[in-house]
Amino acid sequence: EDVAAYAISQDTALTNSNYTVSFTDGKYTITPKAITVSADDLSKVYGSKDAALTYTANGLVGKDTLAGSLKRVAGEDVAAYAISQDTTLTNSNYTVSFTDGKYTITPRPITLIANETSKVYGSAEVELSTSVSNTSGLGLASFDSIKDIIGILSRQNGEAVGNYDVLLGNGLKAGNYSISYNSDNNSYTISPSTTNLANVIVPSASAQVVVSNNPKIVSQPVSQEVATQIITLSEIRINQENNQTNEGSQTQQDVRVPISKNSIIELVNGGVNLPDGVEQQFFIVANTNETN
């Protein structure tokens, strides 16, 4: 049944008593069957192992098979790669018409989390970082590092005390990932400066104290004084305005704060001009039994 030419001859002699028969053999030719073969379209997630390349043949008879193999265009980045014949798929009994396939690498899902970072107001910037979630997404491919995805991290602009978002960069391999990331994360914190101050606590609300000539409010505690609370210039102004309103005064008074508890030198209205969003802080010190 293979493709070939086969002789046609007499099985039993063709005879008739009235004839003398001269017989010539014939030829029976089996030609190759035309079939179509298509490489199967396949896919994988970036960073996973390749699946075996396969094909579909339409028209093979019985248990016939084809010899040969497939290959795909080399590459591991997210893209579509052609699947073609490596060694030609053949069988001498068939004429093969082959159609290339497509091998698609899809983005790898990953969830990134901005790590909590902080610095003290006025100090140098600290390094930003992120981590990979262990509970969401597929994580990093074994041959990648987190730097390959995040690139150079940055944060929201600002130097005032408060919270800022950590922002992703664009790493060289970021395009190979489907990234989930909460960009509204407030993960970078600038906290108030408390350099060289002991027992200072930030009030949860404005301190309700008398401001004018209040010996408890100072610009900087000295060694014998223990600061127990921070109060801003804005809070002092609000308290002073409330006191003036209660007293019926219409004249705005200066905010006068002594350098320290027993100092005759005062800062008037803060003493310096600070940028918008930056508060000047003063300190409330505990009462003592010292005699001036």
Give a quick summary of the entry.
This protein is mostly beta strands and 292 residues long. Helix content is 7%, strand content 37%. The protein has helices at residues 147-150, 233-247; strands at 4-8, 26-30, 33-39, 42-45, 55-58, 67-72, 79-90, 94-99, 101-106, 108-114, 117-120, 130-137, 154-155, 162-164, 166-167, 177-181, 188-191, 217-218, 227-232, 256-258, 266-268, 281-285.
Description:
It is a single chain. With 292 residues, the protein is mostly beta strands. It is 7% helix and 37% strand. The protein has two helices and 22 strands. Strands 4-9-7-6 form a four-stranded mixed sheet, with no helix packed on it. A three-stranded mixed sheet has the order 5-3-8, with no helix packed on it. Strand 6 and strand 7 form a beta hairpin. The radius of gyration is 43 Å and the shape is rod-shaped. The C terminus is likely disordered.
Q: How is the biggest beta sheet arranged?
A: 4 strands, mixed
Beta-strand content: 35-45%
Subunit organisation of the chains? single chain
Overall 3D shape: rod-shaped
In round numbers, the mean pLDDT is: 80
Structural class designation: mainly beta
Task: Write down how many β-strands occur, each being a DSSP E stretch of 2 or more residues.
Answer: 22
Give the proportion of residues in helices: under 10%
First-to-last CA distance: 123 Å
**Element string (H = helix, E = strand):** EEEEEEEEEEEEHEEEEEEEHEEE
The helix tally amounts to 2
Largest beta sheet: strand ordering: 4-9-7-6
